Amino acid sequence: MVLHYFELNKIQPVIGTENDRDLWLKLFKVETEEELIVFETMKEPVMNEAVGAYRHIASSQELREFNIKRAMSKAEHDEAQAIKNAERRGEARAEARAEARAEAKWQDVINDKDAEIARLSKLVIEMQLTNNEK
Fold this sequence. Notes:
- By secondary structure, the chain is mainly alpha-helical.
- The chain has a domain at about 1-60.
- The chain is about 80% helix and about 0% strand.
- The protein has four helices and no strands.
- It is rod-shaped and about 120 Å long.
């Protein structure tokens, strides 16, 4: 048994008279309606049949419903992720604000202590001057 892996992004987009494998790989890589039309206009009956089968499946009600459900699910997931990210940003902002408030409180305490030290130092100097005058 042999298993081959093909990287579709490395397949050249130009369609010519390649072998069947290359045609199938390029068909799997199709992303637009215009690219699909190129395959329809080919003289390869297998490619015409494959495009016809794709169009039949793509036009089915079940596939449309599946795509709608998938899109809704993705939208719900994206919304939940956006809310989660917003909550994280909000938490980070709240944490930053709390840290800023704590820093401000500590700065106030330091300033109060510095003022108290300055006041006491002034009192000590005044007491020493008073004692020296006696």
